[in-house]
Amino acid sequence: KNQVEQSPQSLIILEGKNCTLQCNYTVSPFSNLRWYKQDTGRGPVSLTIMTFSENTKSNGRYTATLDADTKQSSLHITASQLSDSASYICVAFTGFQKLVFGTGTRLLVSP
Amino acid sequence: DVKVTQSSRYLVKRTGEKVFLECVQDMDHENMFWYRQDPGLGLRLIYFSYDVKMKEKGDIPEGYSVSREKKERFSLILESASTNQTSMYLCASRALRGPSYGYTFGSGTRLTVV
Question: Closest Cα to residue A99, out of B28, B31, B55, B17?
Fold first, then answer.
């Protein structure tokens, strides 16, 4: 069964601190993996796209890693800002371009 | 920038009403999608469309129908709204190639059925 599991479900950190969000996926066939940021009441916005051959990809203060052997991905946020408060959704794409969504990690950055 | 516009941010409807959710994209994308998002369940695919007048059921199509008469517009229809259809509805379109390759989501419509 195709599925994506994210942890933790929610996280509170102080402004300026770093944090790492985890994603485990079981998807076959695997095409690529994306992290999305979803602000409250808004649609998801793509942060990174990674294929199975890519280990790391950065987008500003966001760095995503992918380990295709263990089927794990992480999203690292550096020097967090209040505007990073959002839900972060991990999405695995199958070879048939079907999306499998995780349920998200809700991040709150506190001043 | 690709824009996917959903006509309403918030909507309150009564049980049994027929509800139309509209989605318009401005980048000539062939593929369009409707998802619903519920706490703890993530996004679930309701219907999608590969092209004009084409539609395919997603994972949870029951109680919904769709219409795609023009390439830029994809409508989700709740024939007789029920309280269990209270949810956040997200539309997405997809470019298969080119600079806007990938999925773009709209801002969502939060529907409450009372």
Answer: B31
Give yes or no for a contact between A9 and A34, defined as CB atoms under 8 angstroms apart: no
Alpha-carbon separation of residue B86 from A85, B17, B76, B109 (angstroms): 25, 13, 14, 10
| pLDDT tens by residue, A86-96 | 999 999 988 66
- Token pair 């024939």 in the structure block, residue: B79
Q: Which of residues 62-81 of B touch A (CB under 8 A)?
A: none
CB pairs under 8 A between A and B: 36
For position A52, what pLDDT does the model report? 75
Q: Judge: A102–B107 Cβ closer than 8 Å, yes or no.
A: no
- Under DSSP, the state recorded for A96 is T
Residue B96: pLDDT above 90?
Answer: no
* DSSP letter (8 states) at residue B26: S
